[in-house]
């Protein structure tokens, strides 16, 4: 059978609305994957879960809930698994890779700013202004 046997939602509550990409739609990826995954497929949801969205788009999100298409998942027999990412588990390994030059985190750095600009940078990141992905604050700048 062609199609998708396993889908991963690693975006979470910051997903963009398919019909209006300027807006967030926290359940967009889960709904897309429920539609795309083959019967008897798997859906994995990983990442960081915040009990309360900092920028909720509606009453459901204010409670920390998401609308999940359970009828579609059930009808198709999709197995759902979820958990938080294990970033702490890999800190030492990642540090060693950076020191050895095998990993270059600078590829994801979007801005290098003086520490004095931290409040403005955080506000732009929090508002999800395009381009504010990973900001390095340098107290010596």
CATH topology of the largest domain: Rossmann fold
Shape: globular
CATH homologous group name of the largest domain: NAD(P)-binding Rossmann-like Domain
Rg for CA atoms:
18 Å
The CATH first-level class of the largest domain comes to: Alpha Beta
Distance linking N and C termini: 56 Å
Give the oligomeric state: single chain
Report strand order across the widest sheet: 1-2-3
Number of helix segments? 5
How do the SSEs run, as a string of H and E?
EHEHHEHEHE
Strand content range: 15-25%
Number of strands: 5
Which secondary structure elements does this structure contain, and how are they paired or packed?
Layout: E1 4-9, H1 28-36, E2 37-47, H2 59-62, H3 70-76, E3 79-84, H4 91-99, E4 111-114, H5 118-126, E5 135-138
Parallel strand pairs: 1-2, 2-3, 4-5
Short description:
The protein is an alpha/beta fold and 141 residues long. The protein is 27% helix and 22% strand.
Verbal overview:
The chain is α/β, with parallel strands linked by helices. It has two domains: 4-84, NAD(P)-binding Rossmann-like Domain (Rossmann fold, 3-Layer(aba) Sandwich); 87-138, no CATH class. 27% of the residues lie in helices and 22% in strands. The chain has five helices and five strands. It has helices spanning 28-36, 59-62, 70-76, 91-99, 118-126, and strands at 4-9, 37-47, 79-84, 111-114, 135-138. The protein has a three-stranded parallel β-sheet with strand order 1-2-3. Strands 4-5 form a two-stranded parallel ribbon. The chain is globular. The model has no long low-confidence stretch (mean pLDDT 84).
């Amino acid at each position: 059978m062609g199609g998708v046997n396993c889908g991963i939602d690693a975006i979470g509550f910051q997903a963009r609305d398919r019909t209006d990409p300027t807006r967030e739609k926290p359940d967009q990826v889960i709904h897309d994957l429920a539609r795309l995954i083959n019967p008897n497929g798997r859906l994995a949801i990983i990442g960081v879960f915040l009990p309360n969205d900092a920028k909720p788009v509606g009453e459901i999100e204010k409670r920390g809930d998401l609308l999940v298409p359970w009828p579609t998942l059930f009808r198709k027999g999709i197995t759902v698994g979820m958990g938080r990412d294990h970033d702490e588990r890999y800190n030492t390994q990642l540090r060693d890779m950076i020191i050895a030059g095998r990993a270059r985190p600078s590829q994801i750095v979007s801005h290098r700013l003086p520490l004095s600009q931290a409040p403005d940078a955080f506000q732009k990141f929090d508002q999800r202004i395009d381009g504010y992905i990973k900001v390095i604050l340098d107290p010596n700048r």
